[in-house]
Recover the amino acids of this structure.
C-alpha cells in the first residue's frame, strides 16, 4: 500500500519500534564509532572504502570507481587528492587511454589498509556481539534485501556524497533540537 494511503495515527504510540528509526540509530552509531576508531590514521570511512575498492580493482580508473561507489566525479577527485597527498594512492595515466587515470595503492596505502581492515573486522564483531552467528547472518541477509530493493549499491555509502565529519553532524543535530 502506498504511503499516502496508509493510515497514520494522530498520536503515535510511545515505545512503538519503528524500523526506520532503529536502522538510522544503528547506522549512525556504527558509522560514527568506526570513524572514531580509524581517525588516528588520518582517514575517514569514505577513504577506507576507496582504499578497499582500489585494492580489489588495481589499475581501474577514476570513472569506474565513481560509478561503482555512486559518487559524483568531482567529489571523488577531492577524496583521491586527499589520499594521494597522504601517500596512500597513486594515479597514473593509462597507456591505452591517456585521458584516463589508473588507480593503485602505494606500499604505504597497502600497509594502512591492512591495519584498518583488522579494525573493521573487530568493529563488525563488536556490532554483532549480542547476536548468535545465525542471527547475525539473518540480519545481514535482511539488510542486504532491504538495500537491494531500494537500489542501493553494495559498497556505496551516503558518506561519499559529503565530507564525513561527525562533529559537524553533531552540531547540526544540536542546532535542530535546541529551542528557539
Amino acid at each position: 500500500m502506498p504511503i499516502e494511503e496508509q493510515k497514520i495515527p494522530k498520536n503515535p504510540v510511545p515505545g512503538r519500534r519503528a524500523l526506520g528509526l532503529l536502522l538510522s540509530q544503528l547506522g549512525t552509531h556504527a558509522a560514527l564509532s568506526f570513524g572514531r576508531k580509524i581517525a588516528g590514521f588520518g582517514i575517514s570511512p569514505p577513504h577506507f572504502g576507496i582504499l578497499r575498492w582500489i585494492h580489489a580493482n588495481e589499475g581501474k580508473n577514476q570513472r569506474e570507481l565513481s560509478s561503482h561507489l555512486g559518487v559524483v566525479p568531482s567529489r571523488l577527485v577531492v577524496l583521491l587528492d586527499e589520499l594521494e597527498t597522504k601517500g596512500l594512492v597513486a594515479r597514473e595515466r593509462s597507456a591505452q587511454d591517456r585521458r584516463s587515470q589508473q588507480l593503485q595503492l602505494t606500499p604505504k596505502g597497502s600497509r594502512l589498509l591492512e591495519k584498518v581492515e583488522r579494525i573493521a573486522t573487530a568493529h563488525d564483531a563488536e556490532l554483532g556481539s549480542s547476536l548468535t552467528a545465525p542471527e547475525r547472518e539473518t540480519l545481514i541477509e535482511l539488510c542486504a534485501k532491504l538495500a537491494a530493493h531500494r537500489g542501493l549499491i553494495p559498497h556505496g555509502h551516503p558518506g561519499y556524497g559529503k565530507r564525513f565529519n561527525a562533529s559537524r553532524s553533531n552540531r547540526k543535530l544540536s542546532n535542530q533540537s535546541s529551542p528557539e
